[in-house]
Each structure stands twice: as structure tokens, then as C-alpha cells.
Amino acid sequence: MAEGQRPDPEKAAAEYRSKFKRVRDEVGKAIVGHEEVVEGVLTCLFVGGHALLEGVPGLGKTYLIRSLAEALQLDFSRIQFTPDLMPADIIGTNIMNEDQATGRRAMEFQKGPLFAQMILADEINRATPKTQSAMLEAMQEHAVTAGGHRFALQEPFFVMATQNPIEQEGTYPLPEAQLDRFFYKLVVTYSGKDDLKVILDRTTTGHKPDLKPVMMGQEIVGAQNLVRRVVMAPHVQDYAIRIVMATHPDGPYAVGATNKYVRWGASPRGAQAVTLGAKLQALLDGRFNASFSDVQKVYLPAMRHRVLLNFEGEAEGIGTDDVLNEIIEKTPTMSEAAA
Prior knowledge:
The protein has 2 domains: 9-84 and 116-215, 3-Layer(aba) Sandwich (Rossmann fold), CATH 3.40.50.300; 230-332, Magnesium chelatase subunit I, C-Terminal domain (Helicase, Ruva Protein, domain 3, Orthogonal Bundle). 44% of the residues lie in helices and 16% in strands. It has 15 helices and 13 strands. Strands 2-5-8-1-9 form a 5-stranded parallel beta sheet. Strands 3-4 form a two-stranded antiparallel ribbon. β3 and β4 form a beta hairpin. α10 (234-245) crosses α12 (268-284), α12 packs across α13 and α13 (292-303) packs antiparallel against α15.
């Protein structure tokens, strides 16, 4: 490729970091604390993935996605998942319409709330697996099929789903195939004392944050394309592959915790998420090449929903993050072959 056709890596990284920071700062006007969660959600958006947030109700998950939609000037739609929600309630359905002038009748597709650019799937694990699965095609293909016709969704298309902890009553575990479509799983914890004070000062005194749009849809699409052009050296890619394969029980790179507590490991989508997440971290650090530390930083949110523990792990109270942390600790950055 000619030199004139290639962007200056340093300049491109600086512009990317600036855009990311502008959106993050704008959302920060409304969201108090949870910096890692906010950055994780923005990471999913800026790489073209989807985010799954887990936490008890009332921690600001819904408010976060509303604030993000305001800052990005994107069409926003909220879907409240309930046990009686049907797939057609999400995707849409064919209805009979009559032309007032001619009296002719024809079937017409009535689009559902899924036809927006930014979707909040609120409490997605309250719905039955059948309805949860209705999101699969949209999340993977950015299109839906209804009545034998395929309808493309407008880009950028981003789904942020929230779920309550599965131990709560009235919840259905998400199918593994759908979990794998989420780029990150982010855990939203309780706010600390200082953050809670700021929340009370903002929400009980009539304060209303004035969020201004700072990016357009096409800018986000351009940012998503730039991430894929970041360089990942072969030895860094090899490390990313090995720590993903380390989640496979009895595999060549499995650690002790994997063999003892893991039932199923991560799919190739996990490796894709780790790679793209690491590339984005490099851009945020002003670099156009991903490093070992970039891979390690994104490993937990990219992998925690892709690793399924066995009965022994659940019985002993082992968390998925515990296994993943052991993998990072025990997997050398350089392979023996490379060394």
C-alpha cells in the first residue's frame, strides 16, 4: 500500500484516544463511579461488539446506556425483558394493512424495538430462553429475518444487556451460544460511600446533567475500523492464543485450576475479543501496536462469560475470575518455542 494511503499511526492513535475520552467524559457527567464499567461498555461499542452487565437492580445500568445514547446521537430503544415477552415483540411481525383509497389489502412488516442503533436489553435473563435466543441473529449478523425477508439493521448497532445475578428468583440462565455473542461481561458492584454521596447530591436536589452529543454514528463506524488496523506482533498474538487455550480442560496449555474446575473453555470468539480489546487498549495508550499488558488487561471481561465451571468448581465456590487469574499468573508471556 502506498505511503499516502496509510494514516500516520501516532496521529490516528491520538485522534482515537481523544474521541474515546470525549464520550467517556460526557457519560461521566451522569454516571458516578464505575469507571471500569463505563470504559468496558465504551470498549465494546468502539470495537463493534456488545456488552453484558451483571448486577443487582438499582446500580445505574439502565441510566448508563441512556446517557451513552444521548452522548452519541444514536437511535435508542429499550426492551424490558419479562417472562411473557415473545420473539415477535422484539423483532416485529407481519400485519394486514388496507389501502384506504383502493381497498386492497397486503401484508406489511411492522418493525419491532430491535430496529434501533443502540439497544438496551434490560434484565435479559428475566425472559425465557426462546425469547433470549431471538436476539442471536441480530447480535451476530446485524440483521433480522422475518416472513422470509432479511432486514439489515442500521450501523453502528450496539446491544447492552443487563442481567440480574442468576441466583435470584425468576431468572433464566442465558444460553451459552448467546453469551458468546457478548464481547465483554462486566460486573457492576455497589457504589462506595463517597460515590453514593455524590449520587444523592445529584438525584435528590433537582440536579439534571446536561449531556451534549459528542460523536455521530459514522465516526463510531470509522473508529471500529481503525481498531482492526492496529498491529499485534506474532509473539503477542501467540500469548493471546495460549491464554485462551488455557481455558480448555486437558488441553496443552491448561493450568491446574482449568483441569480441576472447568467444564467448557472459550471458543474462537474469545480469542477475537481478547485480540480486539488489546488493540483498543493500545490505541488508548497512544500506541499502534498491542502489548502483553494490553492482553492481560482485557482478559477477564472478555473471557469470564465464556468459561463454564463444572460441578466441583460450583460446589467449592470457585469463581470464573479465580480460574482466569490463575491462568494469567501461570502462563508465561513468551512460549518455550519462541524463547
